[in-house]
Amino acid sequence: MKRLFKHTYLTFRFFILAIVFVALFILSYIYLGLLSIVTALFFVAVGLVVVDLILLFKQKGISASRILPEKLSNGDNNPIELTLTNNYNFKTELLLIDELPFQYQKRDFEIKTQLNKHQEKRITYTLRPLERGEYYFGHLNVYVNSPVGLVTRRFQFAKNAMVPNYPSFLQLRKYMLIAFSNKLFEYGLKKIRRIGHTMEFEQIKDYVPGDDIRNINWKATAKRNQLMVNQYQDERSQPIYSVIDKGRAMKMPFEGLSLLDYAINAALVISNVALKKQDKAGMFTFSRKVENRVAAERRPTQMNKILETLYNINTDFSESDFSRLYIDVKRTITQRSLLLLYTNFETLDALHRQLPYLQAIAKNHLLVVIFFENTELEKLTNVEAHNTFEIFQKTIAEKFMYEKKMIVNELQKHGIQTILTIPQNLTINTINKYLEIKARGLL
Fold this sequence. Notes:
This protein is of the alpha/beta class. It has 3 domains: 1-166, Immunoglobulins (Immunoglobulin-like); 169-194 and 235-440, von Willebrand factor, type A domain (Rossmann fold, 3-Layer(aba) Sandwich), CATH 3.40.50.410; 200-233, no CATH class. It contains 12 helices and 21 strands. The strands form 6 sheets. It has a 6-stranded mixed beta sheet with strand order 18-17-14-19-20-21, with helices on both faces. The chain has a 5-stranded antiparallel beta sheet with strand order 1-10-9-5-6. Helix 6 packs antiparallel against helix 7 and helix 6 runs parallel beside helix 12 (426-440). The longest helix is centred in the last third of the chain and has 26 residues, at 388-413.
């Protein structure tokens, strides 16, 4: 009996019927001839409620389950699948309420559907997580109505499931295919013209029309009495480090995702591309001190190590210390490396405070400073101003956007490679720059 009351709910139709009977009983006091008819109808209604309860609780009812992925991909749409089976001998109406993780703060999530007798159905919905960490799902609640529709029975399934939310491995798979395809331009990835060639010798081969005549090996030609050329290959095993600033400048959110998480997703993808290009991939983060270090290596387990390290990055978004970064790089990275520095500068003054340290790092390594355009400012500049306040807002926005371009010029003037990108295009533009550096043999 306790179970019956715990899982039984009255429907809107039941309350409408109750209001009708209240009105009819009131009328029966005025028109006494109605009392017997209303009483009879009332017992019929009570009988319908009893029949509804018997229909819902006599049989096994509904079976349901929630199929979760092993891990969620941060910033991407992740599919969640629900399977439902109707074990009743009649058609049912269902209301599904899945208790989503607290990170979503969503209290009105529901799905309505119908099932014919003994029918099985699969329902898929998507979730877009915006914070790394553990996501706990509660109950999957299924509310069932019979054709009578006066009472609802609740079923509960899939209690307390946890799924970790990792940096965007879905982007990793996507861009891994793009970076090695011949259709890069379709995704915003540029084809880079190779200038000169790298100096890693591969073999001496017979000359064929189209080979670079500058690579003719005259000694081998004299011995074989036919033209022979040296063949070179891309230099491999070059250290590629993703350096992620996790200070306060990276806290700014765009489309719900912080700049730090955009950088983490891009670092995961570029590390995978570098490993596939036979380079060594590594990473570390910094704010008040340097942390989360993964030395640049090319091992089968390297991607898992980088993924786990990126997943466990925690920060209080304190002020970043670029002097500590310079000291650590000078002490620990002895081989010339490509350093992809993910940070953000909003003003020239902010850059000038850190420029001496960036210049010092760039003396021994190929440094690429990656920072972000403010898309909200761009929206302000595109809006037509109608009053003095809007003109003031638009002018200030244009000033800040101009300062971003001045920051790019200032860095390039000191021989530092730069990427200025909107957060959504960070991964694409980082891959572009890496492929350009490889093609031009700059490292």
